[in-house]
Structures are given as C-alpha cells and as structure tokens.
Amino acid sequence: MQSEIRKRLIEAFTNAGDEYLSGQFLAEIAGCSRTAIWKHIEELRKEGFVFEAVKKKGYKIIQAPENVTADEISFGLKTDFIGRAIHYEEEVDSTQKIAHRLATEGAVEGTVIVAEEQLSGRGRLDRKWHSPKYSGIWMSIILRPNLPMQKAPQLTLVTAVAVVQAIEEVTGLLPQIKWPNDILISGKKVTGILTEMQADADRINAIIVGIGINVNQKQDDFPEEIQQIATSLAAESGQNMSRARLMQAVFARLERLYQTYLKEGFFPIKLLWESYALSIGKEIIARTVTGDIYGKALGITEDGVLNIQQANGEIVQVYSADIFINE
C-alpha cells in the first residue's frame, strides 16, 4: 500500500500545479524531516518522476512516469474518495480476489486494487480475460453503497457509463455499451466490467467492481481466437495512451455518477446508459441459458433489466444473456 507520507507529498505536488514546493514546506505537511523528504523524492525519481530542483525555491514535478504505480495514479487525481487508497501489485491471479479480501478486512470505500498483469483474470460467467503486462488497465474498486441487495446490478450500468465517458474524454473515441457489461469500439470489445457483492442476509457490505480495459495492445497481441472480436484504445486511435490518466478519468466520472445515483436514483443513469447503448432500437438475439430470444431491444428497466419486444408484440424481460445484433 502507498505510505501516508508519500500520499501527502503527491497530493501537495498535485495541488501546487506549476509552483515550486520547498523542502521545509513538504516536511511540515508530511510530518517528517527534510532528510526524509529528500529520500522520498529519490524514491519517486526511481519510479520515473522527473523533478526540477531550484535552490531557495524547492521542488517541482515536470514529468510523471507512464506506468500505473500508486504514486503515478495519485499525481493529478481529482476525486474525494475513489482512488485515494490504492493497492498496487506487479502480478496477481486476479484483482477481484484481492479486493474481496481487503473489503472483508474493512478497506475504505473507494479503495482501488490495480495490477500490471493478471494471471487468472476473468469476466462474466467465469470467462477468461486476457490481461497481459504493461498494456492495459486491470483493476477492482471497492464500493460500500447503502442499498437494498436487488439494486446491486445497477452499479454495473453506472460503471459502464463512467468508463465510456472517461474513454471519450481521454481519447476522443466513441465507445458504445453492449448490455449488460461490455464496452465496444467499432463493434469490437475494449472493456469488460464485472460486479460482485459481499452481503449479509439483509444488507450489502461491499460491491467489488472489476474493470478491464485494453489500452495499448497491438491487434496481434491478442490471442488468435479473439483477434476478430477484441480491440484496444491504441489500435483504434493509432496512438498509445497514458493508462494512469485514463484511470484518473474513470475514477472521477465514476465518483460523480455514483453520487448522482445514490442521491437521485437510477433514472438519470438509465437515460445516459441508453444514449450509449449499442442495441437499443435494433433487432437482436438474446442468448440465454434457456434458449434464444429474438426481437427488438426497447431499453432497460429501472432495475437494469433488458426489455425485448418479440414479433408478436409481447415484451420479454431478460436478466442475463449474451446479445447479438440480428443483421
């Protein structure tokens, strides 16, 4: 976990913008000696931060690294709670597993677990998620909403809108949402979202939101069996992206939408979600465990359930399915 002193230093440099911060000022806000400050700055340099040091003025960060360490994610972060506590790992089986453990141990709301590589990343229905090192965003976020358990699936849709908005903001690309939890660009999957719940009999203890975003992979980096259906932000835009900047945008968008959702309910989220939805108004096939449903996707209910109007006019509600556009 990120040390408290390091967090205070990064926050100070974030708030300072283009100003220099003296060693004495940094020592006072961090509650340590100027010698300790120098040691922390040297550690930040090792991570890839570039400092400008001017005598009698102090220090200023002039360049941040391109990796996704806790310090890099924190530098420039503009949220109140999401991403303020970061658990960073180089390699894990799954960020979801770590998030579940930390949530059980009492991790604060907004804690983020991020890894450079997942060995056993997974998506909905326990499908494997390809999570190679240094190329994507593989993370889980712990939320603790005061909600009835039946509303937990709505947070998948809240997250999907936040990720779409963040991708638009950072890249200029125009993603679409494929119900219930995929984000596509040019018809290919770029992001998957997995929400899991920890609960007692009558209340939610935590929602673990897993997010996997293909950021800087080349098309031939994907396994051959998914090259026709997967893509990355770099493959679509023609340029590599700052993963830390994208994560910061996701955290800011998610925090804002999450707070709107808790205050105003699901309706404003529903309108946003439908505006980004790939299948609304189109003829689709919904492949469920009990068989295929054919019809027009009308939209989602207040509970995030998909309404499909069949040829005979009957409206069927679908809670879980794989969706295919019926060309």
List the helices and strands and how they pair.
Layout: H1 4-16, H2 23-30, H3 34-47, E1 50-54, E2 58-63, H4 70-74, E3 86-92, H5 95-104, E4 112-118, E5 136-143, H6 154-171, E6 176-178, E7 182-185, E8 188-199, E9 204-214, H7 233-237, H8 243-264, H9 267-276, E10 283-288, E11 291-300, E12 306-309, E13 315-318, E14 322-325
Parallel strand pairs: 3-4
Antiparallel strand pairs: 1-2, 4-5, 5-9, 6-7, 7-8, 8-9, 10-11, 10-14, 11-12, 12-13
Helix pairs in contact: 2-3, 6-8, 6-9
The poorly predicted ranges are none
Anisotropy-based shape: elongated
CATH class of the largest domain: Alpha Beta
Average pLDDT metric: 89
Summarize the amount of helix as a percent range.
Answer: 25-40%
CATH superfamily of the largest domain: Bira Bifunctional Protein, Domain 2
Largest sheet: spatial strand order? 3-4-5-9-8-7-6
Number of helices: 9
Number of strands: 14
Based on CA atoms alone, the radius of gyration comes out at 21 Å
Could you say what the CATH topology of the largest domain is called? BirA Bifunctional Protein, domain 2
Q: What are the secondary-structure elements, in order, as H or E?
A: HHHEEHEHEEHEEEEHHHEEEEE
Q: Any idea how many domains?
A: 3
Give the percentage of residues in beta strands: 25-35%
CATH architecture of the largest domain: 2-Layer Sandwich
